[in-house]
Amino acid sequence: MRLLLIVNTYATNYDLNRHRAVEAALGAVGKLEVEETHRHGHGLPIAQGAVNRGVDAIVVWGGDGTVNEAANALAGTHVPLGIIPGGSTNVTARTLGIPNDVSQATGLLLDSIDSKRIRRIGLGRAGERFFTFTAGIGFDAAIVREVESRSMLKRTIGPSVYVAAAFGLARRGFDRMQPTVRFHYGDGTTSPDLTAAVVANSSPYTYLGTRPMVVAPDVSHDTPLEVFGLTHLPFVRTLGLITASFTKPRWLDMSGLVHRHRFTAAEAEGLPEFEFHVDAEYRGFRSHTAFRWEPDSLSVYV
Fold first, then answer.
1. Residues 6 or more apart from 143 whose CB is under 8 A from it?
2. CA atoms of 13 and 158, how far apart (whole Å)
């Protein structure tokens, strides 16, 4: 068996001793190649090259960004993806039932490889980019932009950096009331004008420590995508929505601010532009983006 291990050495839980242990464990399975990423986006060409060389499986030790890059290379193929969580949140891994502990996740992966325990999951697609758990627009994407500019702080304090970024944006006067996007759905309907939106491919949306943040509780890798959008973001009521997403997600729709819609195809129209991220990787500004649900797109070890 030919395996490629892609390692993000800047990931939150990376250290050299763990690296040696993971490499030794996977090396016992078959012929192992190891490559390290050195910048955002580097995992994608590494994984594409491995697929072209005919590897039997690709394992990612990294956070959601590195997992996303490998998933984009593997989408539409039958080369399975194994995940060893290395980031601060690891949403995709945890949604698939993979433990956050490196040793436990490696042991589970070895068992999955041995028993050929593989699952096909659906992916979302935003323009040219696949995503495993979410794409975010507006305020949500602005938070990701702020976090990416503080990568060392993210490694130090973990998911709390997202909370700090959100409060910082609000304090500096980010326009939380001005609409930024409108969705045109494949069924012929149109959303209201939205200030922020999340397109969910799975649930939860993210984690704060061990607590899941849930905004689209009925979405999974086996269902179509869902838009969860907010028409505006009044500060106090938004704090209430955030609290509900951790405690009583079903209460979110009682706020009068929420729009949600399940779909397989949609077009996001900027008003006139929106900031944008996929799987917490910032993608800049767009005037429009086509969204599609791509069922049974990716093989994963679970």
1. 162, 165, 166, 169
2. 10
Judge if the upstream peptide bond of residue 272 is cis by omega within 30 degrees of 0. Answer: yes
Q: What is the pTM of this model?
A: 0.91
Domain ranges for the chain: 2-116, 129-295
DSSP, collapsed to helix, strand or coil, labels residue 105 as helix
* Neighbour count for residue 209 (Cβ, 10 Å): 10
Measured CA to CA in angstroms, residue 101 lies from 19, 82, 96, 105 at distances of 13, 15, 14, 6
| Phi and psi angles of residue 152, each rounded to the nearest 5 degrees, phi first | -70, -35
**2-116 placed in CATH 2.160.10.10:** no
Fold of 129-295: Tumour Suppressor Smad4 (2.60.200)
pLDDT digit string, tens, across residues 59-94: 999 999 999 999 999 999 999 999 999 988 999 999
Q: How far apart are CA 51 and CA 42, in angstroms?
A: 15
Q: How far is CA 164 from CA 27, 172, 232, 245, 292, in A?
A: 41, 12, 20, 18, 32
Element of type H or E holding 190 = none
